[in-house]
Amino acid sequence: MATYVMSDIHGDYERYRKMLQLISFQDTDTLYILGDIIDRGSNGIKILQDMMMRPNVYPILGNHEYMASLCMEWLLQEVTEDSIKDIEPELMQGLTEWMNVGGSVTIKEFHALTLEEREDIIDYLSEFSLFEEVKAGGRDYILVHAGLENFRPERHLEDYDLSEFIFHKANWTKVYFPDKYLVTGHVPTHVAYAQERGLLSSEVPKEERKHTIFIRNNNIFIDCGCMYGGQLGCLCLDTMEEFYV
Prior knowledge:
Elements: E1 3-6, H1 13-22, E2 30-33, H2 44-52, E3 57-59, H3 63-75, H4 81-85, H5 89-111, H6 115-125, E4 132-136, E5 139-143, H7 162-166, E6 181-184, H8 189-196, E7 214-216, E8 219-221, E9 233-236, E10 242-244
Parallel strand pairs: 1-2, 2-3, 5-6, 6-8
Antiparallel strand pairs: 1-9, 4-5, 7-8, 9-10
């Protein structure tokens, strides 16, 4: 029985499957996925369908799933010139923003599903958690997609709203909880490694960028840039062993 965490798979089904094989993922194990499962890569829906069949995989909402959920109900209908003409401005803005961050491939994949399969995906996305509190290996963890915006030590996790979990990146120089680890995805770890050197990520040559899990000040960043020239990372919370594909 082991507890694992990964994030930001971004539609790379092959790496997702390879990671499950690498960690020898069993029915007695637990896996938390910290959002951004879809978009950019072409098989995000396929990953979601695999996750849906696994009761020991727990999804946490990322900004990409949130943006998708705002649009998918409309995508259930047949898209015609008339339906596009009558679309509400707010929905059009949401669709545009989603497509600008890689949603086009997910929309194409979604449209290839049957109506029942599309409805199942929408229902599944509605079940995603905003955060999870986990104990493993004698340590306490808080798992969120991006960070804790407007953080105060006395503030309960239930008091944060959705946007404070999924859009605001964590600050690795800050100790949020002295007795717990905050585990996040959202921002590729090579960005944090560059910041530690006093550099912008764009100032670090691609061949010198580090795409490994970043652990500092009780922060654990696990987005290893799967779709940004990096790799998919996975951390065993019981042993702190790192895995990469």
